[in-house]
Amino acid sequence: MVCLVCSAEARRGLSEWHSCCGSCGYEAAALTVAINEAQAHATIDEAQREASLKALRMENFATIVGWAREQAPAARTLLDVGSAHGWFLEAAAPYFKVTGVEPDAEVGGKSIARGLPVRLGFFPDALAADER
């Protein structure tokens, strides 16, 4: 394996899909896409994930939205790539016209059912040709 950053030889990391560069420290992953496979969903308890993560994520998202408003005060739109449960969209919606892109059809579908503007698919394929 060759490091994508410095071209030095990388070594196997924690798993067969993980590698580490001994020269620059870059870590890489060679995971296969399984996001919409039933087996991938069977191993995750989404209700428990929400109970465990939502409060912390919402606090973090409020901080990020505040930073974004300071750094780009004229910005009116925001794209959330990998919008998952839509929590970031909810935090940003009072200040921006938001759109989410989510490759996980099950999780993204739940966000859509809650009325959030989420497009199912992968970035940038889920965007129209004239969108940036």
Features:
132 residues, alpha/beta, three-stranded antiparallel β-sheet, three-stranded parallel β-sheet, 18% strand
Strand content: 15-25%
The low-confidence runs, each spanning 5 or more residues with pLDDT under 50, are none
Write down the oligomeric state: single chain
How would you sum up the global shape?
globular
> Biggest sheet, in brief?
3 strands, antiparallel
Describe what is shown at a glance.
This protein has 132 residues and is an alpha/beta fold. The protein has helices at residues 38-42, 46-71, 87-92, 105-113; strands spanning 10-12, 18-21, 27-29, 77-81, 97-102, 118-120.
Topology at a glance:
Layout: E1 10-12, E2 18-21, E3 27-29, H1 38-42, H2 46-71, E4 77-81, H3 87-92, E5 97-102, H4 105-113, E6 118-120
Parallel strand pairs: 4-5, 5-6
Antiparallel strand pairs: 1-2, 2-3
Question: Any overview of this molecule?
Answer:
It is a single chain. Helices cover 35% and strands 18% of the residues. The chain is of the alpha/beta class and 132 residues long. The strands form two sheets. It has a three-stranded antiparallel beta sheet, with no helix packed on it. A three-stranded parallel beta sheet has the order 4-5-6. A hairpin with a 5-residue loop joins strand 1 and strand 2 (18-21).
